[in-house]
Design brief:
There is one protein chain. By secondary structure, the protein is an alpha/beta fold. Helix content is 33%, strand content 33%. The two termini are 17 Å apart. The relative contact order is 0.16. The structure holds 1-O-pyrophosphono-5-O-phosphono-alpha-D-ribofuranose and adenine. The site of adenine (ADE) has 8 residues, from strand 2.
Length: 175
Amino acid sequence: MNKLELIKSSIKSIPDYPKAGIVFRDITSLVETPEAFHACINIITEEFKNKGITKVIGTESRGFIFGAPVALALGLPFVLVRKPGKLPRETLAQSYELEYGQDTLEIHTDSIVEGDNVLIIDDLLATGGTVDATVKLVRALKGDVKHAAFIINLPELGGEQRLKEMGVTPFCLVD
Ligand code: PRP
Ligand code: ADE
C-alpha cells in the first residue's frame, strides 16, 4: 500500500454525524496509526520546505494536530487560530459558516506581521468557511497567504474553488 492509500484507509466515515445527511470524516483513527500520521506530516513538510513560508497557522482544534508537527519540522513559528474567548491577549475576530453551523475564529493581533507568508493547516476542507475566515484574519494583519494544506478534501462542498478565488492554492492529500 502506498502512503496516500495508507492515509485514506486509516480515515473512518461515519454517516449522519453530527447531523442527519452529514458523512463525518474521522481522523482519530488516522492519528492512532503512527505510520499514517507520520506520512501526513512528511508529505506536507516536503511540499512546503522551499516555498518561503515564514509561519504556520493551525485552526482549532483538529488543525492543531497536524499544524504543530509541520511547523516544528519546518523550523517555523506555530500560530494558533482559536474559537472565541480562548486567547488571552488582544485578538482579532472573524465569523464564518460551517457545513453544520456558524462560528467565530480569533487570532492574537501580534501573531502575524507585515511580510509574513503564512501556510494554513487544517485536517479537512469542506465548504472552506474556516480557512476563508483564517485567510481574512491573516490579511487584516497585513500578512500574506498563498497556500493551505489539508489531509482531506470534500470536493462536492466547493471549498477548493472558494479558496482558489481568494488567491490561495489548496494542497490536499486525499478525497
Ligand atoms: C471542522 C474541520 C475544519 C472545518 C472544515 O472543524 O476540522 O476546521 O470543520 O469545514 P469548512 O471547510 O466547511 O469550514 P470544526 O469547526 O468542526 O471544529 P473542530 O476541529 O474543533 O472539530
Ligand atoms: N468538518 C466539516 N465537515 C466535516 C465532515 N464532513 N467530516 C469531518 N469534519 C468536518
